[in-house]
Amino acid sequence: MGKTTGFMEYARVEEGYTPVAERLGHYKEFVIGLDEDQSRQQGARCMDCGTPFCSHGCPVNNVIPDFNDLVYHADWKNASEVLHSTNNFPEFTGRICPAPCEAACVLNVNADPVGIKSIEHAIIDRAWQEGWVQPRVARHRSGKKVAVVGSGPAGMAAAQQLARAGHDVTLFEKNDRAGGLLRYGIPDFKLEKAHIDRRIGQMQAEGVTLRTGVFVGAATQGLGKGSKVNNGARENLAPGQLLADFDAVLLAGGAEQSRDLPIPGRELDGVHFAMEFLPQQNKVNAGDKLKGQLRADGKHVVVIGGGDTGSDCVGTSRRHGAASVTQFELLPAPPREENRALTWPYWPLKLRTSSSHEEGCTREFAIATKEFVGEKGRLSGVKTVRVEFKDGKMLESPGSEKILPADLVLLAMGFVGPVAPVLEAFGVDKDARGNARAGTDFHGGYATNVPKVFAAGDMRRGQSLVVWAIREGRQAARAVDEFLMGYSDLPR
């Protein structure tokens, strides 16, 4: 694939960023994608290796060598067709996927991998620009009705696949706009929401009915007492009604229940979940008027959690004009470079510096938060201690306690699972982690213990990547189609 000697002739070229001072003044995307020549050179680096580990490393099994070769030969339209054959939403993954395919690239054994994600980004942006992305309306209707609960990437992928199979699909979302955690969890500077709107428009043209502001669950319980999960529902729909009105129901909500940190001072004003902070800014960007928006202007911000959500809090706080931003990670700092002989083709543990980190952030590793400190109910600092790991145990380092000034703490330590009241309202069995219990077998996969109720995405597997959600949505759609029709032509 590509050019036979391309991997020896051309170096990897990274996508660029607009300058920090410029991009901190807005919430729009700032990545500078590869131009046509750069994209073709990256495609030329694909090695025609005997076993394309990149496709196995990709959760949706993108046919990566094929679209690399098509880009190298400037056949962009067919590259778009190949890309869409496995991935409903390449504009999402081309922007926010961490690219496990690149970690699995054969070149990555001892050199820089092919820039697969940047090529994907270039293909889909060109496809939209050229008008190649069009609705694919089913030629025949099945007469079957399917409800998909949750309009994140799993729900969107499933709804689109089922509509293309000829089913009458209704996509339910508890908030006022579709997109789930894509819409309300990921900042606009990483994914502008026009990309979601454009896909929703395509899906509606294909026959998907979108109902926003509808919470599916027990009317008396809702999301549970004191829940901090984002919920803009204006209407409640009981599971029994859904089961009566539809031939199949797919639960595809996100893992929205944030992991808490129950230490002294947790009740102080100024300690919040990241998922209280991030959705508010996205709503403001969309034109909503919010009273008392949670903001970081002039504050000393501490972000607890070293992952992507924490990084998103860093970037948003910097755009607010925070006085300082410090990010905590409980584990020791990972190596800057992985031992490829030991890790390839798997996803390696190594230090990853995001664009938000480059915008201004102090990163602290091997640090634990002991207490939130404050006066008169208001946060003023966090008491920390250094930790080390010995024989699999975390030990505090004597004499390392200190208090760091903090006016705002954002808890970004991941998610413990989907919203339990939804599963409980349907009577769905849960696994040990609180996710819907359902397998992934080729026949009968994604089915729960409740007749005609299926589960996919974070609802089934727990907190995961957008690309995994798309995979599960596609596979669950095939399972639902097979359940309704006795067979399915949809791909897994």
Q: What do you see in this structure?
A:
- The protein has 492 residues and is α/β, with parallel strands linked by helices.
- The chain is built from 20 helices and 20 strands.
- The chain has a five-stranded parallel beta sheet with strand order 5-4-3-8-20, with helices on both faces. Strands 10-18-11-12-13 form a five-stranded parallel beta sheet.
- Helix 14 packs across helix 15.
- The longest helix is centred in the last third of the chain and has 20 residues.
- It starts with 5 loop residues before the first helix and ends in a 7-residue tail after the last helix.
- The mean pLDDT is 95.
Tell me, what's the shape?
globular
* Percent helix range: 25-40%
Average pLDDT score:
95
CA-atom Rg in angstroms = 23 Å
Summarize the structure in short:
It contains 20 helices and 20 strands. It has helices spanning about 5-10, 20-25, 35-45, 55, 65-70, 75-85, 90-95, 100-105, 115-130, 155-165, 180-185, 195-205, 240-245, 275-285, 310-320, 340-345, 355-360, 420-425, 460, 465-485; strands at about 15, 30, 145-150, 170-175, 210, 215, 235, 250, 255-260, 270-275, 300-305, 325-330, 360-365, 365-375, 380-390, 395, 400-405, 410, 415, 455. β3 (about 145-150), α10 (about 155-165) and β4 (about 170-175) form a beta-alpha-beta unit.
Core attributes:
492 residues, alpha/beta, five-stranded parallel beta sheet, 20 helices
How is the topology of this model organized?
Blueprint: H1 6-9, E1 16-17, H2 20-23, E2 31-32, H3 36-44, H4 53-57, H5 64-72, H6 76-84, H7 90-96, H8 100-104, H9 116-130, E3 145-149, H10 153-164, E4 168-173, H11 181-184, H12 194-205, E5 209-212, E6 214-216, E7 235-237, H13 239-245, E8 248-251, E9 257-258, E10 271-273, H14 274-285, E11 300-304, H15 308-320, E12 324-329, H16 340-343, H17 355-358, E13 362-365, E14 367-375, E15 378-390, E16 393-396, E17 402-405, E18 408-411, E19 415-417, H18 420-426, E20 453-455, H19 458-461, H20 466-485
Parallel strand pairs: 3-4, 3-8, 4-5, 6-7, 8-20, 10-18, 11-12, 11-18, 12-13
Antiparallel strand pairs: 1-2, 9-19, 14-15, 15-16, 15-17
Helix pairs in contact: 3-5, 3-9, 5-6, 5-9, 6-9, 7-9, 10-20, 14-15
